[in-house]
Specification:
217 residues; alpha+beta; globular
Amino acid sequence: MGRPYRPLILVDYLNDHVVKFPNETAWQLKKELAAKPWAGTTPDELEDGEEWEPFEEHAVYECVQVQGPRLGTVAIVKVRIEVPADLPPSDDPQERAKHASGMRLNLYTTNEIEILKRLTAAGCSATPTLLAVKVDMQTESDLGRPGWVTPPWMPGGYIVYILMVKIPAQPLDYTFFWRMTQNERNEVRIAFRKAFLSVNGPFLSPILTSWQGTNKA
């Protein structure tokens, strides 16, 4: 889907950033767990009938509640932020603003939020519980810091914060998985199959069916 976006620009800005959510809680982003670019599309890359999708960067942070009824609670925030498609991006913030999506989220971001809402409402135990979502607009006050080579922000673009319960677990990437013993890998496969079936059966299938019906209408 489009071309990859480099470099990442989230980490320096968001460390220790405090996010206030609509549920009247505030959380401070503390430890960055993962970050990656996400390619979108531009109008000149599309075929007939396709819609362009904003370019994004994704980051996952461990965060701590600093305002609300459970101060000190640790949770997870996933951040999705719209970034310029052009490489290198323009040094002029007004020029970057011309290409902002107008707060139209990338389809993958919209789908992730909707699925998390439905799985949480249905009480699914195999996925993180969604606590809150905040959708903000980037402004000219977010233009970065003196000395940065790449102006990071896109005035008029979106930044989405997805707050979820932290699940006690070990991140499972390719390297970690293949360093396991055969028995450990088999245990992971069995656990994954059990979790997948628990989601796909009573929870995910009705969601996909309702979406298919909406698309046909």
